[in-house]
Amino acid sequence: MNVSAWVWIATLVALIAVLAVDLLIIGRRPHEPSMKEAGSWVAFYVGLALVFGIGVWLTAGGQAAGEFYTGWLTEYSLSVDNLFVFVIIMARFAVPRHLQQKVLLIGIVLALVMRGIFIAAGAALITQFSWVFYIFGVFLIYTAFTLVKGEDDGDDFKENILIRWAKRALPLSSDFGDGRFSTISATGKRLFTPMLIVMIAIGTTDLIFALDSIPAIFGITKEPYLVFTANVFALMGLRQLFFLLGGLLERLVYLNVGLAVVLAFIGVKLVLEALHTNSLSFINGGNGFHWAPEIPIWLSLLVILGTLAVATVASLMKTSRDKKRELQTTPR
């Protein structure tokens, strides 16, 4: 793709405008959205992504559109996994229900900023050093392995060193108040609210997830414009999705397994591509392995869609069976 500067500017202005509207609504009226409100917003953002993909198809062709849709779907599924950790964090710190939407929105903005930085760095590295795909591929395969083993499970969320330091060093109140980061006590002393600690936890979690998601999207497309827009659309509407899904999140017991398969597949795809375009002198004399197959984008989309569909259906079937078994064994 040859993306001109004005297309970048127009895209950034449009996306910032959508986020600004979201920010103004939340900033003016923090609340727990109804199912109708959450569903409408999720449908709007998903529809926006689908329309954007059609625009990419009309202006840049089916290959670019396929890369966008595949990248968006991958990032969206990783973002849903991110929600699991957000749920654990907000439960751990007992965030009031009416303030959770504000926490989610700030967390999504932080994720956008961090992913933007990683996208810029990743694009620069790939342009200069094609062997980076070896590192990205191996990292994704390792991440998939940790997901299957459960080492990256949100239930194992532990307070990191930054959170522990903040809780020790900062004067903290016990009340969230109106959701601000600081408040004035009855004695006139300024105290930080637990909201600041929650934001530190959310921010460091966003950083960890960015390390997973950026190599994954670069395994699908090397075009920075598609990488950036796929990430933005995957994060838009995530806070509304949190309230829409509700208890369904806890029922997606095999989501981590599905994501592990997806990440492993993309990791293998990256390694094969690195082998095909190899430039490292100590590997095959700096020549590429032309026997290494290049996985087409349509196959990637089918594998990712199929894997996530199977993981979702299997999760719902298992939780349904478990619930029936529990009801049968519960004494009346």
Automatic annotation (TrEMBL):
Species of origin: Actinoplanes sandaracinus
NCBIfam families in the record: R_switched_Alx
Subcellular location as annotated: Membrane
Similarity comment: Belongs to the TerC family.
Tree of life domain: Bacteria
Residues that span the membrane, as ranges: 6-26, 38-60, 72-91, 103-125, 131-148, 196-218, 224-245, 252-275, 295-317
Protein name in UniProt: TerC family protein
InterPro entries: Integral_membrane_TerC, Integral_membrane_TerC_rswitch
